[in-house]
Amino acid sequence: MSAMPSAPTRPARPMWVVSVVDDAEHAVTRDDMAAGIASGSGTYRALCRATVIPPSMTEPPRGRCPYCRAVLRLAATP
Ligand SMILES: [Zn+2]
Fold first, then answer.
1. Per-residue pLDDT for the chain (78 aa), expressed as one digit of tens each?
2. Are 45 and 51 in contact (CB under 8 A)?
3. Residue 41 falls inside a structural domain
């Protein structure tokens, strides 16, 4: 009776976070988000290994990072 089946290789529901570095949304796992919060640096490690520096939350995103999307696509491929 599993409510949420998931493949072990796919990062569990990454969060898309806009970075001021390239104005793209990057995929950040919950673990990396927690690590960023715990470090107090205000930065997060994206799936593509970019360092994400979030802007004001009122800024609209300008497209998702193609590298994070590629990592997620590869992880979803059997
Ligand atoms: Zn990325």
1. 555 555 556 667 899 999 999 989 999 999 999 999 899 888 999 999 999 998 876 666 678 999 999 999 999 887
2. yes
3. yes
Q: Which residues surround ligand 1, an ion (CB under 5 A)?
A: 26, 46, 48, 50, 65, 67-68
Q: Rounded to the nearest 5 degrees, what angle is found at the Cα of 53, between the Cα atoms of 51 and 57? A: 145
Cα 26 to middle of ligand 1, angstroms: 4
Domain total in the chain:
1
Model's pTM, two decimal places? Answer: 0.63
d(CA 65, CA 35): 21
Distance 51 CA to ligand 1 centre (A): 8
Tell me which residue of 32, 28, 27 sits closest to 65, measured CA to CA: 27
Domain containing residue 40: 15-55+63-76
